[in-house]
Amino acid sequence: MEILLVDDDEEVGELAQLLLKKRGHSVRHVLTGEECLSLLESGYYPDLILMDVFMPGKDGLQITREIKSNPKTKDIPVLLFTVMGTLSGIEEAAKKAGAIGYIPKPFNRSEFLSYIESIAKA
């Protein structure tokens, strides 16, 4: 599965990439939502976007809404990636933005990989 990881925390990004690549996934990591949108506009369509919520510039919820409002990218699943407890109502906010769900950070490695694998099989 081709995964686009959008997270301004390089350490979290490196760990997630390492875990996902070990499971055979191809991972591309960008640091901002704007970089994500630019890649999508250039014709790069991953199987999944793993999106941090809190980033400089546009946040992950705004970027997700933009992805979902574009006919070319609306079918790409977006999974939010956020620090637990920093956003009350994250589940509802994720749904409203069009995300398929969220994964809390810090994440449990096995739960993180299980969630990704369940998406890959869907």
What does this structure look like?
With 122 residues, the chain is α/β, with parallel strands linked by helices. It is 43% helix and 21% strand. The chain has one domain (7-89, 100-109): 3-Layer(aba) Sandwich (Rossmann fold), CATH 3.40.50. It is built from five helices and five strands; from the N terminus they run βαβαβαβαβα. The chain has a five-stranded parallel sheet, sandwiched between helices. The chain is globular and about 30 Å long.
Any key phrases for this structure?
5-stranded parallel sheet, 122 residues, Rossmann fold, 43% helix, alpha/beta, globular
Describe the structure concisely for a colleague.
The chain has 122 residues and is α/β, with parallel strands linked by helices. The protein has helices at residues 10-22, 33-41, 60-69, 90-97, 109-121; strands at 2-6, 26-30, 48-52, 78-83, 101-105. The protein has five helices and five strands; from the N terminus they run βαβαβαβαβα.
Share of helical residues:
40-55%
CATH topology: Rossmann fold
**Beta strands, count:** 5
Rg is 13 Å
Main beta sheet strand tally, sense and closure: 5 strands, parallel
Whole-number count of domains: 1
Helix and strand composition category:
alpha/beta
Give the averaged pLDDT, no decimals: 91
